[in-house]
Structure formats: C-alpha cells, structure tokens
C-alpha cells in the first residue's frame, strides 16, 4: 500500500508542477508594478498594426483609426467615454500611452 502511494506521488507531483508552471507564471513580471492583464506577453518581434488596433478595441476604445503604422510606435486616434484621444502603442511590448 505504501509503495503504491509513493509511486503515485512520484508521478503526480512532477506532472502537477508541469501543468501549473506556464499558467502560474503567465502574468508574472519582476520589473513591472502594473497589472499585466492589459499588457499582452509578446515573445516574438513587433506586433502588427492590426494587432495593436485590436488591443485598443479590447481595452474599451471605439472608432479606432490608425494614423501612423510604420515606426516602432503606432499612432492611433480613438474614442473612449465620448472623448477623442490620441494614443501611441509600442509595437514591441504593447504598452499604450496617451499623447
């Protein structure tokens, strides 16, 4: 009985750790103190202008219009809460900041 329990634990614990490792660390960033729910984790190169536009729409902006999409930061005009805003999106990490 004891041998079966040890064997089951020896198999289940590493599998459980593998299953949690990606999801448990998905939002962790040791250098950031802002919530990571709004910041997509990008490991590849720059996001496309369409991806940046979709990111803004998911963040609650409407009538998102691309003004400049050929630099490292993309420039957008959008509406949120009835007010017009101009935003810059960093294509490397997805950070959004108002202009």
From TrEMBL:
Identify this protein by name. Uncharacterized protein
Q: Which organism is it from?
A: Taklimakanibacter albus
Ranked from the top, the taxonomy reads:
Bacteria, Pseudomonadati, Pseudomonadota, Alphaproteobacteria, Hyphomicrobiales
């Amino acid at each position: 009985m004891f041998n079966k329990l040890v064997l089951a634990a020896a198999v289940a614990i590493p599998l459980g750790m593998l299953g949690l490792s990606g999801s448990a660390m998905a939002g962790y960033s040791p250098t950031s103190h802002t919530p990571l729910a709004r910041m997509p984790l990008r490991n590849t190169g720059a996001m496309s202008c369409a991806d940046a536009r979709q990111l803004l729409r998911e963040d609650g902006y409407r009538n998102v219009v691309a003004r400049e999409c050929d630099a490292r930061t993309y420039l957008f005009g959008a509406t949120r809460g009835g007010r017009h805003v101009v935003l810059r999106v960093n294509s490397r990490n997805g950070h959004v900041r108002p202009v």
